Amino acid sequence: MIDDGVLINRVASDDILDQAYDWVCSRRRDYSHNSDIWELRRNWQDIKPILQQALRSGNYSFGTLREIRTESGRMALWNAQDALVLKGMALVLGTHLKGIISDNCHHVEGHGGAKKAIRNATEALVPGSHVVNYPSAKDRRA
Prior knowledge:
- The longest helix is centred in the middle third of the chain and has 17 residues, at 80-96.
- The N and C termini lie far apart (63 Å).
- The protein has 2 domains: 4-96, no CATH class; 100-127, no CATH class.
- Strands 1-2 form a two-stranded antiparallel ribbon.
- α2 (14-27) packs across α5 (80-96).
- It contains 7 helices and 2 strands, in the order ααααββααα.
- The chain is mostly helical.
């Protein structure tokens, strides 16, 4: 078992935070000029050591999710710094849990995604069994 301090120190490391920073900048490169990503980018060299200290001391706290409306509907969005910290945590935990997470967790990178999940479900069907497709009420009236 790894001490939690080792994991959070890894999250707060230059290497992980720089990877997470590159990721969040890439993901949000087309965001509005009003987005907080631009402030994070502009002030990253000042923000980074403060963020590292907050993570290492256990004093970092996440902000609230914002709900934004897009042409395709509504979505919840973390602020840029929180998204960066969450990505850093995902990078560290992904490596730490690599041998523990089941291969059947298809949402995990490298586990095959939706295609593999569908393939596994199809292969698990008993030979000779059939998927039954019931007609909708609309089809029954026709």
